[in-house]
Amino acid sequence: MKLKYTYILVTVYIIITFIVAPHFAYSQSLHSDEMRWTKGWTNFEPNNTTYPEAEQKIANAITSNTYLSNDAVYLLSGDVYVTNNATLTIQEGTIIRCDSENPANLIITKGSKLIAAGSKAYPIVFTSNKAKKSRNNGDWGGIIIAGNGKVNTVSGSSIIEGNINPQYSIYGGQDNEEETTILRYVRIEFAGNASKKGHEEGGLALFGVGNNSIIENIMVSYSGQDSFKWRGGTSIMKNLVSFKAHDDDFDIAQGFKGTFNHIISVRHPYISSPSGSYAVEIDGYDAHLGYARPDDLTDVTLSNASLITLSNKTNYQHTSAAIHIKNTALIYITSSHISGFSDVVKFDKSFSSLALVNQHFNMDNSFFNIHNKGVVSAKEIVNKSDVLKYNRFTKTFKSVDELFLDPLNKATPKFSLKKSLNNYMVVQ
After folding, report:
1. Cross-strand partners of 133
2. What pLDDT is stored for residue 5 in this prediction?
């Protein structure tokens, strides 16, 4: 009898260890600091930061390998082109003040390279040259990088629009293995100036990047346009922060293929472009340029994403959908939080049937807090239960401070859920 009793205890222990314990650990992990990867290098108050004055101006034409060391503070003014297959290397801890009177743009042309490898302790900073507390969204232009990666247009390449020198505006090719750029621990603040026609790319614009590029630990804050933009190419990226952009946080198109792991989008309900702004806008192909391969549409995976609007019960009506999908793009979202928006996802008219929606959009193991129907489609063919199954959600809309640990902290906001996911409803 004693042996039988011991067997029962062992069996119960095994069940608890392999079934209950992992579930408990998962629930508890939601209370850990999910933003720990942002510590030490991000800055959520760049307008209150005192930066040293620029000491040395960067030449507007960089035609040979150039190194910027952190023993000087640099001024970026007007259009600065890196050409002739040159590499611009920036040392960790370097500060680059960017001209607002003659809006600065750093343009890395096809075949050239930008290596900006900061560190957690010493990030590289591109910021406005205005004084503390006087900086604004769109003080300067941004960083534009053109590569040889595949672009799904009729010609297999494309041109960066606007008044960029035409001989340097081409991007795209057949080299998906290219190491187009290396970017680590970089902050881009107050970019996105639109005063020059075509220089509306936002903080960081990546055109035809190759998959040997390294793009990680990048923060774009207070962009006057998009924070991040991808056109074609392929890459695996992680640890990206978009903070209070005027337009989209992550704008992706022209057959880009990639994975985004640990990304944060923080929006304000009163800040939006006239045409509407989204945390993620993804376009299967460029309707104006057409595509060469109908089976090679934009296709991305978002993992551990936090897409958040700082809305509450007094201003939530100003928000839109978190994600806008156009021209049958493909997107998979997993282990993510979406909160404060009207809806999770909006589909354009290219999605003509529920079957097509289910082929191109999938979301699982995620959580959402929205105040509308959850799903919007131009042809009214889908509803929440059709496409958001097996995700947890709030029964009623919650203000941002009700839901997260310390989301309104100006210096170190925290977007971990106050309660375990097990406290919320599941879409059946």
Report:
1. none
2. 37
With CA atoms as reference, report the closest residue to 304 among 279, 339, 340, 338.
Answer: 338
Residue 426's contacts (CB-CB under 8 Å, 6 or more residues apart) are 390, 391, 392, 393
User: Using DSSP, how many helices (H) and how many strands (E) does the chain show?
Assistant: 5, 32
Check whether residue 127 and residue 267 sit in a common domain.
Answer: yes
- Please indicate whether residue 314 or residue 381 has the higher confidence score (pLDDT): 314
Degrees to nearest 5, angle at CA 350 with 346 and 356: 85
Judge contact between 258 and 236, C-beta under 8 A: yes
Are residues 11 and 118 located together in one domain of the fold?
no
Verify that 169 and 260 share a domain, yes or no: yes
DSSP output for 13-63: HHHIIIIIHHHHHHHHHTTS-TTGGGTTT--S-GGG---PPP-EEPPSEE-
Co-location of 46 and 3 in the same domain: no
Within this chain, do residues 132 and 204 fall inside the same structural domain, yes or no?
yes
CB 220, CB 202: distance < 8 Å: yes
Question: What number of other Cβ atoms are within 10 A of residue 65's Cβ?
Answer: 15
The residue type of 363 is M
Looking at the structure, tell me whether residues 8 and 91 fall in a common domain: no
- Shared-domain flag, residues 11 and 128: no
Residue 43 tokens read as: 């800055």
Q: How many CB atoms lie within 10 A of CB 260?
A: 24
* pLDDT at residue number 29: 38
Calpha distance 109→196 (Å, rounded): 19
**pLDDT digit string, tens, across residues 72-94:** 999 999 999 999 999 999 999 99
How many domains does one find in the chain?
Answer: 2
In angstroms, rounded to a whole number, what is the distance separating the alpha carbons of residues 183 and 224? 21
3-state secondary structure (DSSP) of residue 113: strand
234 and 323, same domain (yes or no): yes
- Total-model pTM: 0.91
